[in-house]
Amino acid sequence: MAGILFIISAPSGSGKSTLVNETRRLVQGLEFSVSYTTREPRGSEQDGVEYHFISKEKFREMIAAGEFLEHAVVFGDNYYGTAFSALDDARKRGHDLLLDIDVQGALQVMERVPEAVSMFILPPSPQILEKRLRHRSQAEGVTDESVIEKRLRQARQELEKLDSYKYALVNDELEQAVSEMRSIVLCERHENCDEDLSAESARCRTSEHSPKLEAALASFDVGLSKV
């Protein structure tokens, strides 16, 4: 079954990129959507690989032309967006599309493409998230404490939207998280979804409120009543 749109959201520093890359290595026919952004490249990022880096003027022109499936302003100053052409191109090749977007954009896509399969990836605790953010900031040469604090606050806010997502994966052990994402993709495709994969996929449903998910949410002081 080709043409499925998989929405992936996660707080900055959750290890999403590594998880997605590993899953794509194991699952064939799963394309990664390269989004557009007006922010500057970080570290070793390359245009057309991690993002299409464009000017705000060009981004606004694309909005006016109706070229975006979704777009949003993130962290108050930079635009991010996904072009309709990404999904169309994947479907023409008989592939599914992985869409890596923030919560704002994800909610827009869920309204426009209700059949999309949504996944939220979260770290096991705010302490581990802070550690990952600091490690990444050092690698990028950014040492501004306010940036880290802002991203931690943003993570808590994003977690309160978790109930909008069909699945939730706690990325505490990469190998396990990869296995869970692979099971979700294969079972949503109805492809080689045996009893074990089906059970693993079902445990990741947000509505199941697994013990691992409950513990992660509690560590962020996000009550289950909010999700």
From TrEMBL:
Superkingdom of the source species: Bacteria
Gene Ontology molecular-function annotations: GMP kinase activity
Subcellular location, record wording: Cytoplasm
Reaction equations catalysed: GMP + ATP = GDP + ADP
UniProt KW Transmembrane helix keyword: no
Assigned keywords, A-Z: ATP-binding, Cytoplasm, Kinase, Nucleotide-binding, Transferase
CDD domains given in the database record: GMPK
Residue positions binding ATP: A10, P11, S12, G13, S14, G15, K16, S17
Pfam families hit by this protein: Guanylate_kin (PF00625)
Main location: cytoplasm
The enzyme's E.C. designation: 2.7.4.8
Root EC class: transferase
Domain Guanylate kinase-like: 3-186
InterPro entries: GK/Ca_channel_bsu, Guanylate_kin-like_dom, Guanylate_kinase, Guanylate_kinase_CS, P-loop_NTPase
Family the UniProt entry places it in: Belongs to the guanylate kinase family.
HAMAP family documented for this protein: Guanylate_kinase
Function (record text): Essential for recycling GMP and indirectly, cGMP.
Stated name of the protein: Guanylate kinase
Species in which this protein is naturally found: Granulicella cerasi
Gene that encodes it: gmk
